Amino acid sequence: MQVFVMLLAAGGTCLGLLAAAAVAVNPDRPNPPSSLPIHRRQKRDWIWNQMHIDEEKNGSLPHYVGKIKSSVNRKNTKYQLKGESAGKVFQVDESTGDVYAFERLDREKISEYHLIALVVDKNTEKNLESPSSFTIKVHDINDNWPVFTHRVFNTSVPEMSGIGTSVIQVTAMDADDPTVADHASVVYQLLKGEEHFSIRGSGLIVTANKNLDREKQAKYEIVVEARDAQGLRGESGTATVLISLQDVNDNFPIFTQSRYMFSVPEDIRVGSPLGSLFVEDPDEPQNRKTKYSIVQGEYRDTFTIEPDPSRNEGIIKPMKPLDYERIRQYSFTIEATDPTIDLRYLSSTSTKNIARVIINVTDVDEPPTFQQPFYHFQLRENQKKPLIGSVLAVDPDAAKRSIRYSIRRTSDKGQFFGITKQGNIYNEKELDREVYPWCNLTVEAKELDSSGTPTGKESIVQVHIEVLDENDNAPEFAKPYEPKVCENAAQGKLVVQISAIDKDITPRDVKFKFSLSTEDSNFTLTDNHDNTANITVKYGYFDRERAKVHHLPVLISDNGRPSLTGTSMLDVTVCKCNERGEFTLCEEAAAQVGVSIQALVAIFLCILTITVITLLITLRRRLRKQARAHGKSVPEIHEQLVTYDEEGGGEMDTTSYDVSVLNSVRHGGTKPPRPALDTRPSLYAQVQKPPRHAPGAHGPGEMAAMIEVKKDEADHDGGGPPYDTLHIYGYEGAESIAESLSSLGTDSSDSDIDYDFLNDWGPRFKMLAELYGSDPREELMY
Q: Nearest Cα to 40, choosing from 8, 22, 16, 9?
């Protein structure tokens, strides 16, 4: 170990080189030649700045590192070290300046140590020289083996790849100094899997076999070892590489059966699956591009086969309705191929990709079928035809049951049409094309059994009836016109140009003719022969005082067969104009025309209705008066609910009514006379209380007489209707001599009052008789 000596400038000055570039610390080293010049400085300085030591030295601690040497030669000189590792890792001999390491050093952890050397006076601790920084470098030894960045590597490569296909790059790191030869060099080799893969010097793993078939072996596990150039290896110098083979489409689909048989009902829906054809394809689903086709047979347009790669099957679906009565069995040959297969990897062509399919159709009871998917008939408007068109439905089964036709009520304009048992459609009402240009009917066909009862099998069909046009509408104005003309208009002045339309279907060659029904007006109509006409001033000057509005009846004819002519009224308003011909004062035509015919009709109907109602009321009153006069008026039934919120005053309140009569009846007295069955029931009205008398002044028959008077009045009042009156008493005096009048206690079994006479008062008292009368069943029980 050598320490290089350099002369450092004191106090931050530049360094001066000594005569020798380096002074050997080892005493055996020869001195530099005397011929080299030696630089002399008055101020002494350090003559060192760097030291070296090997890592992981085997000798006993401490290890000598080097010597701090200064040109200051005094007896009281003392050497010191400062820095992060001073006193811990490195220490210096205060007298000699020798530096020692008290720990074994690891270059892979710390490769350099930075320290500061001090020369101080032992007594005063003052610096004799300026502090000097120096470095202790740790020399590397080959003490680390390569370590992989991962213990396990995962990768994939397509199957059947060629030799030398790159798989993965693995890397191992050596912590030794790469600047030292062979200390950090890594050598790779395979410990497992070398028959299928190989590894190159850089750690790149490549394929060594071109027949890596995923269907035979999908995964490989290889072990890679890394060591340095000097052969140093360790436990962590190995890694495992897991290689998965990526699937490629290199296998043909193969049918699992040579023949497939299916049985399906004839009413299976078009497009519904009826069976599955299973194939074997070891490739993964994304590489299963199986194509199924019918190679023999005439049913290519009857069935289709849709592939399902996830389940390795083909699904057969009918493309047309099946009919048991027509074809009961289908037999054809199918083939399974894969057009996307990579022929480079194909070893041989399979012969098991052809199979036979047999489909048996079973019979079901089907609904009637119409011969056409829809029907289109034509009907001329304003005509009733016994036969517009016919629909026909048949029973597709062998039974050939009879069919009943009907038109659904929900059909558009179905109320205007009917259908016979034979399916003939006719109209019951003439149709106007301008109102109903099309009628869409839904016709039902129901299957009947031998007794004529519907079997529940039915089908429908749409019938579209087009109403053809007839020339039954006269032409009219294309729009409302409100022409105006100045009262001083010149002769030949254009008032308005008119045009016409026809509600009927207008052909391209339609020609409208215009004319005035009268020629004695101050207007002229000129037909332009292009379905328009001009209204111009005939003489000029109009007298607004005489007529402010002129009504021109315009005749418009079409060229249909037969030709129709219509009259449209054109109202021309005469206005005052200024010098520039601008209208200044015009009366609206509607104000001059007055009330329209429709308004007059509406007013007349209103007046007529009011008159009829007045006559009916007068007649009814007259009839009622006559009926009252003869006592034969028909009674009107009313129901009246009268609620009395007034409570009696108890036993002290005996001046208003004589209740002794009621008590006499209750305790077995004479019952009131029973009226005849045809006698009118009493009219219950609000009874006015008579004047109060002193106690004891009332007569015993006063209440009975009053009731009889009121009853007699009601019996002989022919104009008063009968009333059913409900009296509700909120409270009766507990001490009243009349006791309680509530109906809640009158139905007690100990009542001694006989209410059977209510049955003789007629049907109006029937309910009251049932409530208060005796029950024959109760009498039998006793």
A: 16
